[in-house]
């Protein structure tokens, strides 16, 4: 059935006012109903009858998938509103979410399938029909598959439509073809997941602020990813919790912290190691927990390792870490003691710890520090939250691994038990079933990829060294891009297919981050697809049908696939219709490991990682430097004396998305480079000057903003801007061998007035 | 009864939700047909305050809109009487049919609040009258992610202000705004 009508509530203006009033009156400080206002409303109503509809749905601007109500006036989306009764958001939505109407009706969106008419890169296209487009793409894929095998087809997937149902259904399609999904951007989250999974067999990423006495944000910015939940942080502080931020960037939450510790980008691993050293040396570790649940009782191995019995022959003391991190040894020692001696402490890390060679071992060090101090999955700490079980048969894994039958339901990602031939990063593949970016690029460069389909990604902007990304794509015979815009990547495509946004999509969603409860919910279609746009799922179904997989994609009704996927949960799309927000499957609970143990070699929490050891990597983390730092590249540093770093663009953007929304552009109209006041004075740069920023690999022209947000030795270029792209400067030939992550977030550089 | 705002800068994390919520609530320009970057009415604005002489000090953020002053300077100078103060709740409103776009109000307002739309007439925060009548919080308050922004009757705000070390913004126009500085 099509739920479009089922959950639309048609209201006259008066009824709408009454309904929303009743909903939020209790929570509102402004709950009085002055009688004059009611009279005003009635007067307005008599002359101006607006047909208003409210649709309860889920945001999709980022993976947080907050609950919201879409408001339509005379059939047009005018705004989205938070739901005050929702415990998690308390009715807040973020800047990204609130610009929904500008996303829906952005005139820059494409409305029809387009076929290239000019040279690649010129961006010249003509309109064709969906039937033509699907026929052409399907034929190209099937011909490449017949002639060169299934791995000659790359389905490159970006972040744009999240990693839930839209990813599951894409896996169903790629398995039909006989291959796996390829990464269509750069790995960000997965290395962090690897570090945690090989320690705990889980990812304790929910911060239990409500019960915490200490909250540490480390390379993590709640203002960017999770703003609707930010009041929880300050409510905890009102209760007496202390907020500490460790970050090279002194902004947003860092500017409001009780303690801010500036650190050199990419050196977090050294500080984690030193904090572990202090914890072990001073005997502050949780003896009961370590001895009962971990594979290093007494911390014999870890203790010796930290004291110098490691391949670097270095004792990881605070005094050793201090000059690397640019943080005083006493500050490191004090934080280590405070964390270890505060039983209820959250340690949240984020994207700031990624995009460098040591990313996986940084995540491992973070995970071990949390474990030995007794902060794993406990009250007031970092807690595991489950995800609903999904149907293993949905993923058709037997098409890629002969006769394979998965017995248990899928709760994380469905990863078939093999390593695809082009995958040289088996540990990364194991996490999410994705072919790693370096493998994808190599296959393209070597001419092995004949057809590439880019979905919800913009690798030409988001990958380091865009010119090399373009070169790789140009080696591919046939490129299709499914996106809402003619992105920088789409300009190089043979076919551009219009993608419907999350506002045009009906799909199930389970929260992966920032959630205390295991949940499942239904994103209802707020508006009909704009033009001839098709959301990911509908494009995938129709492409499957065009390639002849009609048995696997027998229906265009999305509920057929929802019901099939959620079978083990005994939940159907029709059931989900009954819930205005999420259906809660399980409440927050602690110390699950007491019942479940740890699904790792030896059945214990792996301080000493058996999986990494077997794969030939350090089983305990040792210090690994950035690809390009003052220490690892002193000769480069002589000419390029500043540390360049990048990261999320702002609270209003996700990656390269949202740059075209006028409300966002008004606040942040262009890319900016931040430079410290003293450094700017030294180099004669004034606020607003156009500057040239250079690295050994390239240069960009960008406007300078003088700011205290950066350290004196750093300059920060927010990511995602094609117009002045950090990736032109970034490093694309040095890779973390465990996770496949490029060292794409930091390098050395210099700046001068243009 | 005078309505007003309370802003707790010790909670603001510069997320801009208030600003965009206001834009969406009042469907403010620029419309999607205009070029990005076009300056347009901003009824609420988040500002970042940094002291370059003390670069180690944390930046301060402040989110401000019309202060619905007790003695609005804009109203006093308006030559055509387009600006009025509602007796019931002290909300300062402008009648765009009466406004002649002379911008005297902009010169008079000590906070630079009045904004001018494409038609040249003045527009500004009306404390989300429509939402108030529906028992909802103003859009900026409803979306303030960190709970830094509140709105309501000034006596209620004053109670909260006492517990949060806030001060009423001083000025001859008697702004109806309390602020906590970090």
Q: What oligomeric state is this?
A: heterodimer
- Distance from first to last alpha carbon of chain A: 60 Å
Distance between the termini of chain B: 29 Å
- Give the overall shape of chain B, derived from the CA principal axes: globular
> Helical percent range of chain B?
10-25%
Question: How many beta-strand elements of chain A?
Answer: 27
| Largest sheet, strands/sense/barrel of chain B | 4 strands, mixed
- Coarse morphology of chain A: globular
Compute the number of strand runs of chain B. 10
The number of helical runs of chain A is: 27
- Strand adjacency order, main sheet of chain B: 8-1-10-9
List the uncertain runs of chain B: none
Tell me the Rg of chain A in angstroms.
Answer: 26 Å
Most extensive interface, chain pair and sizes: A-B, 80 and 66 residues
What's the main sheet of chain A like?
Answer: 8 strands, mixed
The SS-based structural class of chain A is alpha/beta
Q: Can you list the strand order of the major beta sheet of chain A?
A: 6-5-18-17-16-7-8-15
Query: What is the CA-atom radius of gyration of chain B, in angstroms?
Result: 16 Å
């Amino acid at each position: 059935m099509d739920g479009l009508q089922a959950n639309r509530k048609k209201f006259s203006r008066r009824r709408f006012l009454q309904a929303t009033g009743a909903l939020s009156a209790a929570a509102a400080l402004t709950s009085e109903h002055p009688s004059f206002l009611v009279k005003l409303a009635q007067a307005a109503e008599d002359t101006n009858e607006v047909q208003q509809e409210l649709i309860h749905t889920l945001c999709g601007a980022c993976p947080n998938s907050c609950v919201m109500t879409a408001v339509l006036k005379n059939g047009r989306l005018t705004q989205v509103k938070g739901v005050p009764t929702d415990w998690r958001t308390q009715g807040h939505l973020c800047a990204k979410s609130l610009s929904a109407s500008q996303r829906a009706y952005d005139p820059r969106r494409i409305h029809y399938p387009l076929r290239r008419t000019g040279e690649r890169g010129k961006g010249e296209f003509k309109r064709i029909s969906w039937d033509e487009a699907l026929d052409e793409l399907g034929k190209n894929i099937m011909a490449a598959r017949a002639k060169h095998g299934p791995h000659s087809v790359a389905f490159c997937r970006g972040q744009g439509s999240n990693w839930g149902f839209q990813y599951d259904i894409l896996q169903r399609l790629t398995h039909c073809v006989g291959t796996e999904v390829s990464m269509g951007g750069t790995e960000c989250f997965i290395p962090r997941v690897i570090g945690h999974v090989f320690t705990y067999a889980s990812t304790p990423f929910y911060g239990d602020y409500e019960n915490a006495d200490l909250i540490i944000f480390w390379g993590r910015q709640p203002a960017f990813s999770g703003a609707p939940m930010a009041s929880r942080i300050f409510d905890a502080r009102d209760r007496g919790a202390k907020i500490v931020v460790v970050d090279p960037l002194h902004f947003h939450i860092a500017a409001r912290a009780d303690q801010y510790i500036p650190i050199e980008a990419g050196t977090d691993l050294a500080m984690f190691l030193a904090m572990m050293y202090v914890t072990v040396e001073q005997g502050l570790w949780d003896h009961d927990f370590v001895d009962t649940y971990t594979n290093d009782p007494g911390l014999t191995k870890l203790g010796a390792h930290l004291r110098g019995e490691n391949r670097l022959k270095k004792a990881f003391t605070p005094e050793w870490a201090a000059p690397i991190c640019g943080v005083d040894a006493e500050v490191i020692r004090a934080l280590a003691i405070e964390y270890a001696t505060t039983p209820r402490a959250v340690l949240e890390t984020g994207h700031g710890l990624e995009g460098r060679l040591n990313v996986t071992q940084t995540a491992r060090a973070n995970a071990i520090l949390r474990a030995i101090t007794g902060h794993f999955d406990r009250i007031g700490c970092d807690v595991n939250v489950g995800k609903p079980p999904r149907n293993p048969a949905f993923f058709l894994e037997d098409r890629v691994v002969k006769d394979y039958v998965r017995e248990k339901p899928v709760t994380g990602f469905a990863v078939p038990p093999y390593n695809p031939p082009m995958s040289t990063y088996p540990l990364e593949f194991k996490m999410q079933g994705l072919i790693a970016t370096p493998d994808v690029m190599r296959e393209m460069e070597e001419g092995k990829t004949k057809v590439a389909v880019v979905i919800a990604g913009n690798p030409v902007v988001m990958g380091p060294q865009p010119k090399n990304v373009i070169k790789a794509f140009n080696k591919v015979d046939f490129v299709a891009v499914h996106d809402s815009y003619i992105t920088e990547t789409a300009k190089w495509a043979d076919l551009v297919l219009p993608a419907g946004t999350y506002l045009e999509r009906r799909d199930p969603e389970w929260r992966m981050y920032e959630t205390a409860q295991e949940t499942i919910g239904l994103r209802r279609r707020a508006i009909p697809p704009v033009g001839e746009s098709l959301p990911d799922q509908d494009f995938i179904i129709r492409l499957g049908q065009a390639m002849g997989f009609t048995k696997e994609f027998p229906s265009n009704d999305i509920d057929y696939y929802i019901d099939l996927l959620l079978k083990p949960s005994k939940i159907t799309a029709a059931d989900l219709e009954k819930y205005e927000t999420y259906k809660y499957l399980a409440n927050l609970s602690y110390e699950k490991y007491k019942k479940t143990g740890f699904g790792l070699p030896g059945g214990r929490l792996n301080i000493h990682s058996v999986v990494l050891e077997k794969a030939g990597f350090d089983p305990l983390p040792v210090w690994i430097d950035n690809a390009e730092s003052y220490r690892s590249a002193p000769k480069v540093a002589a000419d390029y004396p500043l540390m360049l770093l990048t990261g999320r663009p702002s609270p209003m953007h996700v990656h390269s998305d949202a740059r075209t929304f006028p409300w966002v552009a008004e606040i942040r109209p262009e890319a900016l480079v931040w430079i410290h006041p003293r450094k700017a004075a030294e180099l004669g740069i004034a606020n607003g000057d156009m500057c040239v920023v250079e690295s050994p690999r390239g240069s960009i022209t960008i406007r300078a903003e003088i700011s205290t947000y950066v350290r004196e030795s750093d300059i920060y270029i927010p990511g995602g801007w094609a117009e002045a792209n950090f990736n032109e400067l970034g490093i694309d030939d040095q890779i973390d061998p465990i996770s496949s992550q490029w060292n794409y977030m930091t390098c050395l550089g210099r700046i001068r007035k243009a | 009864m005078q309505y007003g705002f309370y802003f707790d800068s010790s909670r603001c994390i510069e997320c801009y939700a208030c600003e965009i919520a206001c834009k969406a609530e009042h469907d403010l320009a620029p419309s999607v047909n205009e070029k990005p970057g076009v300056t347009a009415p901003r009824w609420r604005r988040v500002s970042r305050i940094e002291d370059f002489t003390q670069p180690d000090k944390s930046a301060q953020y402040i989110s401000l809109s019309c202060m619905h002053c007790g003695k609005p300077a804009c109203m006093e100078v308006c030559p055509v009487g387009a600006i009025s103060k509602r007796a019931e709740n002290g909300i300062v409103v402008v009648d765009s049919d009466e406004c002649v776009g002379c911008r005297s109000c902009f010169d008079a307002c000590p906070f630079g609040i009045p904004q001018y739309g494409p038609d040249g007439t003045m527009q500004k925060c009306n404390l989300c009258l429509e939402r108030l009548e529906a028992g909802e919080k103003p859009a900026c308050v409803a979306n303030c992610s960190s709970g830094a922004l509140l709105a309501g009757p000034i006596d209620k705000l004053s109670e909260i202000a006492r517990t949060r070390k806030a001060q009423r913004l001083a000025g001859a126009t008697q702004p109806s705004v309390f602020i906590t500085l970090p």
